[in-house]
Structure to design on (121 residues):
């Protein structure tokens, strides 16, 4: 079974692309069209999960976390998701909505550092 973009999540991925959060919209404008030197895809399916942003060439997932991710049950789900992705050799970078909305330059610097680290592997 191919774990990339499974048909099972196709409709949900399309819906998420149509209804991005404000933070996702802001970040997408900055990472799309190889602006950081690598191709990102948005709402990309890996197994049962949908990643906010994913760079397949270097296996980097960027997850944009809103306030809901502060809840204990969501944190447990996030840990399980991250463990699944790590088992599939995908590095996960989590960024909070507020960081994107208020400190975009800092966020972009953080992403660029991750890109350099992963590119050197």
């Amino acid at each position: 079974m191919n774990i990339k973009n499974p048909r099972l999540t196709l409709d949900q991925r399309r819906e998420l692309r149509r209804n991005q959060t404000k933070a996702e919209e802001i970040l997408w404008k900055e990472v799309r069209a190889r602006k950081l030197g690598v191709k990102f895809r948005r709402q990309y399916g890996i197994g049962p999960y949908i990643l906010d942003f994913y760079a397949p060439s270097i296996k980097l997932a960027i997850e944009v976390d809103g306030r809901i991710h502060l809840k204990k049950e969501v944190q447990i789900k996030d840990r399980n998701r991250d463990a699944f992705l790590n088992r599939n050799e995908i590095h996960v970078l989590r960024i909070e909505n507020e960081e994107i909305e208020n400190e975009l330059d800092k966020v972009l610097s953080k992403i660029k550092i991750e890109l350099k680290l992963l590119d050197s592997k």
Residues 72-87 form the longest helix (16 residues). The chain has one domain: 7-119.
